[in-house]
Amino acid sequence: MRVAALALTAVAVVHTLRSGLAEPGHALAFGALVALGELAPVARHGQGARARVPGEREPAPLGAAGALAYALLGRSAGEPTGQGVLQVITVVVAAQLLAAVPLLGRVPKVPSVRRRPARGSVRGGGPELDRAARRVLTVAFAAVCFQPLRDAEQFTGVLGEGPAYAAFLVGLLGLTALCDAVLAAFVEAARTRYPYGSHLRDELCGLPGIGSAVCATGAVMALGVAVAGLWALPVVCVPLLLTQVSFSRYAAVRATYRQTIASLARATEVAGYTPPGHAHRVAELSTAVGRELGLAGSELTVLEYAALMHDIGQLSLVDPLADGATARLPAAEQRRIALLGGAVVRQTGVDAKVAVVVERQADPYREQPLTARIVRTVNAYEDLRGEGVGGALEALEQLRIGTGRDYQPQVVEALAGVLARGGPPRVRTG
To answer: Following CA atoms 266, 270, 275, 276 in sequence, which dihedral angle do they give, to the nearest 10 degrees?
Structure first.
């Protein structure tokens, strides 16, 4: 994808340099808008890189909307504009390069630790390059679909400049959003090694959120400039700016909420009931297995929260278990601990689905929801590893032996697939 975007950029820049800019005022206005939109996340977070709050699928919605609007611009104040597909690409690339200048030499230093990356955060600027390449390819798709048609007499005669034209722009932006979702899922699948279908569902589920606001604003920008000229840009940008601020605050609240749950999950470790890091290891591995099985969106969130809090019921025990392992306990004792854990989770105000997963840990797997089957299998795997069974293969063999009642075979094999690829994706930062 990077190679395709780079080749397309090279062709566009060479062509634009040779032929010159058409409508330089419009190119400057939209280029400045895209650059400011790309810089907005940096100013908001005050960091040396574009910090992406968990839950943000588009960290620079104003820049995305401005780029799409320029790709769909056919008129300005009633007069036809002269930019073509290659000039659109050149302006968008130049704006992204301009926005990248303040980031040079300001990458924050962090200790060299091994940890699971947040979505879109790996070393070397990889996600930023991928996002820039996606932006180029997505804008090119929209421009290729629109620019050749805007001067066609048959096209303009059929649609005119009324509701049919506006509906056409909205439909084209919808196709562009689908194209971007396909590219984003491809990048995430290559980075995390999870199944492509899971990422694609995740991206498609996120389209009705900030994605719909970006598409709507892009269409309104193009229509507004067509009627009122460039003066329409600052007026049209205000609603998306407010949406971006509101969504960022909501995403930040979700991030804080998850940190609270993670801190609560450490209670069993602090009290000595479970080994250090056990809950986080189960959560990471459970999420990986969930993606392997095709879970996405809210299902993964429920799975992660339940995995973090699955051992909270052990706080009711008088004496801690050896290594916190519940897999070897009698079924009745496992059931009691699970019910107590579910009761604690319900008191925290977490989604009731999380409490159900925790409560159902000791049930036969055929009576459990899929999320509970995953947590139970991964927890048993961690318990068996902690007991010194002899390694991952031996622990998996013990799980396969228990597939008659305790563990779903498909979940065990999904866990084996994740482990065969080295476990949940990890990167070294710093």
So the answer is: 60
